[in-house]
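user: Here is a favour to ask of a fellow structure person. I have my own habits and do not want them to colour yours. Could you put it straight underneath, so I can go through it closely?

assistant:
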Amino acid sequence: MVSALLASYSGRLKENYGLNVLVAEGQHGENVHTALYQELAKNIFHPKTRDKFKAAFADLVSRGAQVIILGCTEFGMLVTQADSDVPIIDTSMAHAEAAVDLALGPESGGL
């Protein structure tokens, strides 16, 4: 998981769903946090920052991650599925798709 609020979610995901959550740690975690507050929240997107996210993804995968969850709304504006060797879940898109499915109702067949 790549998130600015790592610990608060990982414990609940383990308890409620049995998921083993890996989070960006050390320099990777610092890079994610710095990018969020010093760049992305200010609508600044640097290619070097994307490279740092890709390095964080690679580290998570090397530790056993099977999917990357973008746990902050701004992250999906910087990185895409092409930036990872494993599936990426952009939580902003997942929430938007769920809202549309709910609004359209079950007979619509979803997005």
Notes: The chain has a mean pLDDT of 88. The beta strands are 68-70, 88-90. The first strand starts at residue 68 and ends at 70. DSSP finds four helices and two strands in the chain.
